[in-house]
């Protein structure tokens, strides 16, 4: 559709590298938002907007206390363990916006790490009790 723009999980874009669409990850949405901003500027200046192309840099996740996995796409490397968990924590702290947010999150995570207090909230759904 003309003059309609969408990013993130609400958009489906096929490409040669991603015939089933781009993965529904924050990195894709962030790259899409940058592309849309560039496209708006180019449209205002009567220039052709560039198409979106996603370059997978890799994925990171924590899998428990002192454990994380990093899967880099370029070069193809995988890391895991305590050091990877520490890098994951530091990177997420670094990517927060604002010094105050970083300080609050750092103090909160340090306290929870030392005291081993979890703030895990789970939602359980009994599918047998769901009525049609």
Q: How does this model look, in words?
A:
The protein has 132 residues and is α+β, with helices and mostly antiparallel strands. The chain folds into two domains: 1-56, no CATH class; 59-118, no CATH class. It contains three helices and three strands; from the N terminus they run αβββαα. It has helices spanning 26-44, 82-94, 99-115, and strands at 58-64, 67-72, 77-80. It has a three-stranded antiparallel beta sheet, with helices on one face. The model has no long low-confidence stretch (mean pLDDT 83).
N-to-C series of helices and strands: HEEEHH
Spatial strand arrangement across the major sheet: 1-2-3
Shape: elongated
The domain tally reads: 2
Mean pLDDT: 83
Report the radius of gyration as a whole number of Å: 20 Å
What are its keywords?
132 residues; alpha+beta; 3 strands; 13% strand; elongated
Chain-wise SSE layout:
Blueprint lengths: L25 H19 L13 E7 L2 E6 L4 E4 L1 H13 L4 H17 L17
Antiparallel strand pairs: 1-2, 2-3
Summarize the structure.
37% of the residues lie in helices and 13% in strands. The chain is built from 3 helices and 3 strands.
């Amino acid at each position: 559709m003309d003059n309609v723009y969408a990013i993130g999980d609400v958009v489906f874009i096929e490409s040669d590298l991603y015939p089933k669409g781009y993965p529904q990850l924050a990195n894709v949405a962030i790259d899409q938002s940058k592309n849309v901003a560039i496209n708006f500027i180019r449209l205002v200046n009567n220039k052709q907007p560039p198409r979106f192309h996603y370059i997978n840099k890799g994925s990171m996740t924590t899998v428990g206390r002192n454990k994380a996995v990093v899967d880099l796409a370029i070069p193809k490397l995988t890391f895991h363990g305590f050091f990877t968990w520490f890098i994951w924590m530091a990177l997420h702290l670094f990517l927060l916006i604002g010094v105050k947010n970083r300080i609050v999150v750092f103090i909160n995570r340090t306290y929870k790490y030392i005291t081993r207090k979890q703030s895990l909230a789970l939602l359980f759904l009994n599918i047998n009790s769901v009525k049609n």
